[in-house]
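Changelog entry

Holo records now carry the ligand SMILES as an explicit input line rather than a separate metadata file. Below, a converted record for adenosine-5'-diphosphate, shown in the new format.
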Amino acid sequence: MAREVRVDQALAAEYGLKPDEYARILTLLGRTPNQAELGMFSAMWSEHCSYKSSRKWLRRLPTQAPWVVQGPGENAGAIDIGGGLAAVFKMESHNHPSFIEPYQGAATGVGGILRDVFTMGARPIANLNALRFGAPDHPKTKHLVGGVVAGIGGYGNCMGIPTVAGECTFHPAYNGNILVNAMTVGLARIDRIFRSAAAGIGNPVVYVGSKTGRDGIHGATMASAEFGEGSEEKRPTVQVGDPFTEKLLLEACLELMASDAIVAIQDMGAAGLTSSSCEMAGKGGVGIELDLDRVPCRETAMTAYEIMLSESQERMLMVLKAGREDAARRVFEKWELDFAVIGRITDSGKVVCRKDGKVAVDLPVGPLADEAPLYDRPTKPTPKAKPLGKLPAPRSVGDALKTLLACPDLASKRWIWEQYDHLVMGNTVQRPGGDAAVVRLPGSRKALALTTDCTPRYCQAEPEAGGAQAVAECWRNLTAVGARPLAITDCLNFGNPERPEIMGQFAGCIEGMRAACLALDFPVVSGNVSLYNETSGRGVLPTPQIGGVGVLDDLTFGVGLALRQPDLALILVGETKGHLGQSLYLREVLGREDGPPPPVDLAAERRNGDTVRALIRAGMVEACHDLSDGGLLVALAEMAMAGGQGARIALPKGASPHAFLFGEDQARYLIATSDPVGTLSVLRAKDVSAQALGESGGRTLTVEGHCTISIAELRALHESTLPALMAAPGR
Amino acid sequence: MKAAVVIFPGSNREHDIAAALEASSGRKPVFVWHGEAEIPPVDLIVLPGGFSHGDYLRCGAMAAHSPVMRAVKTRAEQGVAVLGVCNGFQILTEAGLLPGALLVNAGRKFICRNVNLRVETSQSLFTNRYERDQVLSVPMAHNEGNYVADGDELDRLEGEGLVAFRYCRADGGTGDNPNGSARDIAGVFNRSKTVLGMMPHPENASDPAVGSIDGKGLFDSLAAALK
Amino acid sequence: MKARVRVTLKTGVLDPQGKAIGHALEGMGFAGLGEIRQGKLIEIDLAERDPAKARAQVEEMCRKLLANPVMERYAIDIEG
Amino acid sequence: MKARVRVTLKTGVLDPQGKAIGHALEGMGFAGLGEIRQGKLIEIDLAERDPAKARAQVEEMCRKLLANPVMERYAIDIEG
Ligand SMILES: Nc1ncnc2c1ncn2[C@@H]1O[C@H](COP(=O)(O)OP(=O)(O)O)[C@@H](O)[C@H]1O
Ligand SMILES: [Mg+2]
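Structure line, unchanged by the conversion:
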């Protein structure tokens, strides 16, 4: 029998509870909790589980549309994609664990998000990942990139789920706190979606999956605290992922879900058995009773506290219909997984756990699940960015282009995606490297388009514009492949919310996202908040990562960005003012990171995108690329490199080359068409500004009067940056 | 052609290959669980790609001891065609049905990309729809595809014409070996050329809507040879 | 000199490989098996002739690269 | 009893992992390094009390599963 641990304010503080929060627990209970109970409160009331700082703001996000089947609040969101099917998806962060142990941290991040999706009854069909690392030359970066990428690949590849898209950029603000956000998209029949509200007094509560060990105890609390200088020394037990067991768990769960045995199901993610049991009971308005002696354990003499707070991976909690235990057990035993009836649903409104025959936990569900403190944290708006003023034109447009294509943010991410099996399942129509991945729905002509986007430097400069831009770029990327954008998930990565500047960034980004979601009919159906992304008081760039899903009704009408034929007309869609504030040109060529981000005109975004999509649908577009980081010339170079066809363009009269070629004005696309007259007339009829710039063809990229560079040279530059970074000596 | 696809715990390309088999032969293959001791009467047994038993210890090592593998061996001895792709190839070498072994890629990384394969012979159940020296673009997706065998064994394989595919450049020349494989070997036959193991995935290059159809010839060959 | 480094997972850290090996061995009929853990073995040829110095050098390699202190520990054998 | 199995690549079989470790160590400034090879270490708890029998049992495990004779060899240590 473990010795009693003394519970007091000091222990509460160690578990991450503030003095007033601890006082509130004492009042709620009318007694001092024991260690397990305190641990459960601290986990459930952690930022990670309770969203106590963000909830007020999250309510501002639009979550509705006729096609939304399940909005935020369940393990993942779901949208109707026609034919009785739903796309089920969510994004989640695993930032802190990945910094401590990049391979396992990233791997278990993928494992966690996969469970969130298949818990809903959906078979995962694609993974995405959004990565933010510190400066490429920071001593830790190479090790972190290598480990994170291998970990994401290691898990997804073994599971047999293709990893089809993502993002990866570098900035010193992430030196001490990288971001690893993973997204999974699954498919379910709309009438077979599973949810997590427990119901049915007396129904059995069943534990399946891997055994429980002492791994990651109090991970949810760790995820809710900022790093200090010493945190690398603290080193909590690392969770190790076992994708093989998860693959079996996936198949077993889907097999059982084909019957009607399951009442409710919830994966054991952050805060393990505590959050899964309390949330299921809380949502169902029922009580739950658990016998911890029946929990399959990997280690001996685990205490109630350890069992309830363990974050061992690859586990699920289910409520079954009474009498279905044996049928369910047979399924899990076939897949060689642990299966144990560990409790039942009660009408007590309490969570009661027994250990060694004694009551070890006796807490009311309500306060744990729903009465976490809510904070209305002070916000301080980000001061308006000063205008840039006049900028020098580059000495050589060609050199500027080369610098940009080789800079780590724009360099090819092939080194990353080739480590991901992006083809397994046999439905990957557009592979990584385009604006959005396109994944066919099995046995049909339909496909989903998938992308993740965010431009943190814009969010830093002007949170509202940055939040709107992230959503708009995501929508644009889906549009660029010909898809109808339907909905998004998000992962909001910010610094310490107790600092008003950070809450100001948070609130600003949310308001921007809200405006864009409303203007583009692009609701948020799921998401995740990751706060305290700070090291020693320096926050990361505000990074509201957006993951978008769109539908392509017929594959025949999809396009990619590759220029594959000569003599196509190149048409720039959208208005070009030459905005260079916060641009990559400014940062990489002029060494400055200032000015306002490009303004986001949501009406233009909508109009331009809807028109481009209609042109694609009408078969008038051979290739299409959205314009974002790096501007027009970078986009054109990407199209040329992808298809192996060169191009020649001329600047409009009077345009200043750097602003026109490298400005990052929004709501723009570059399209290649064999029918320029028809295309321009459609665009004009829709009031979309557009101009013909030149044609495709040849082996070089030419800007008349400025530069001619061979595609081979551009490719070599673009492809070598990441491999060179990763081959550099050192760890 | 009747085919059976064996599923091990951790297999994950069984549906990919089933679709390719069906597209070429017009018949859905049957799936057989690794714990079965018997395989129904079929013309072809397929061990698909994936991570059987998590690829733990060594890829394919644990699967090679599955009950079903005794039946696979018996059938192979009787001359039934056996195809192992990727993890299936690894399992076949571990089970002793094919010579050699597959080590971690020389670059120590998982690689997923299209590779060029040179068809070394059109004289087989598996390759009769290809021309000799034809170059195919087919995806690979593996971490352990670096084929090793001792020198004598390699000489024997080459001497007896048992190398099925080699990695090559787009023009068919040597010089593009993605994983360090001995003598650029991407696939080998057993002595009677009734068993083929290969690392790349022809099943992911068999559908015009998704990538190339360069891999379809393999399934067409089988469908033609096994009526 | 030759150094042999054994890198093993700390107790409590999940070892999926070891678990799977145990499973497979049981399936093959081996009985009486307790826990099985898989680790790494790294063999290093060193120019250093002094055992104490060799050990110190390998210690440093372990700390800096060979073992991941978050989840692994190591043991060093030095041989003639 | 406890058995410790060391599985190593045969001489002549290229060891990319070992090479990469050597590379990394050199990059970190370690000098005087010869060949570095990486192998596997498998630790097995056995119910068997008789060292000779334990060894025979583990031998069989190695032959049947733990090592692949095409590319690997193994060594067994039995401990109290
Ligand atoms: N971590 C990653 N994993 C998979 N694909 C990635 C990753 N990072 C970037 N990519 C791919 O590289 C391409 C370029 O990425 P990015 O520049 O972010 O595109 P965009 O600006 O169109 O959003 C995209 O196809 C993207 O999916
Ligand atoms: Mg894009």
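Spot-checked after migration. Chain A touches chain D at residues 729-731 (CB under 8 Å). The longest helix of chain A spans residues 500-520.
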